[in-house]
Amino acid sequence: MGDSAYSFSLTTFSRTGKLLQIEYALNAVANGQTTLGICAKDGIVIATDKKLSSELIDVVNVHKVEKITPTAGICYAGVGPDYRVIVQRARKSSQAYFRTYREVQPISQLVKDIAGVMQEYTQRGGVRPFGISLLVGGLDGDGTPRLYQVDPSGAYFSWKATAIGRNYVNAKNFLERRSTDVMELEDAIHTALLTLREGFEGEMKADNIEVGIVKSDGKFSVLTPEQIQDYLDEAN
Fold first, then answer.
1. What residues are paired with 76 via a beta bridge?
2. Using CA atoms, how far apart are residues 18 and 73, in angstroms rounded to an integer?
């Protein structure tokens, strides 16, 4: 009996030790729009393609980069509605932490809670894995900038720079050539935009990409289209 006999079961391992529904969830991630992150020495940048399927859609109401805490933000590749659920759960977790300890939740604790939710959906009947991978950037308890990737399995990793979604292999190769340990935030923003442009289909404009940053003061913010356009003009 081959692996196909287990492909509809989430909670049953195949003969080769795989949970095939998780692999299918990763396929959904690989079909998503390119998303990348860079951890600079003085901050974090996360950037994503948000090109829409129709020009009739109001781009102002489409958000792929979200603030979770004052010092942390998140973006995704994969299935959008699944992302909304995770954002809601992450915000509840951060607020519960704040009510208990009266301080902002460190990024490592936030990521651990998010990964725990995603892992739970790999071993319960009647549910399916989340069809998303996440990039989460922010400050840890000691003020150090951190960038994490969280996968549908609940596994999470800390990165200096990484990419997920469509064309992630080429994007990672580009980041390996461009990113350095001493890169500053401004350079990281330019590198992120250049990396997105490498595999971008059509013209990359301020309204079809989204960029979030954590500055040296520790505050997370999403760049406005005007700010993004300024960076694009500098890159040309």
1. 134
2. 32
Alpha-carbon gap, residue 220 to 50, rounded angstroms: 19
Express each pLDDT in 124-146 by its tens digit.
878 889 999 999 999 998 889 99
Tens-place pLDDT, residues 159-177 = 999 999 999 999 999 999 9
51, 202 contact by CB (below 8 A): yes
- If DSSP codes are grouped into helix, strand and coil, which group holds residue 210? strand
d(CA 129, CA 121): 5
CA distance 198 to 86: 29
Mean pLDDT of 138-161: 94
Residue partners of 51: CB distance under 8 A and separation at least 6? 33, 201, 202, 208
Nearest to 68 by CA among 37, 28, 26, 104: 104
CB 96 within 8 A of CB 68: no
What local confidence, expressed as pLDDT, does residue 153 receive?
94
Q: Is 45 helix (H, G, I), strand (E, B) or coil?
A: strand
Q: Which of 229, 212, 230 is nearest to 221 (CA)?
A: 212
Q: Which of 166, 236, 170 lies closest to 203, judged by CA?
A: 236
Neighbours of 197 (CB within 10 A): 15
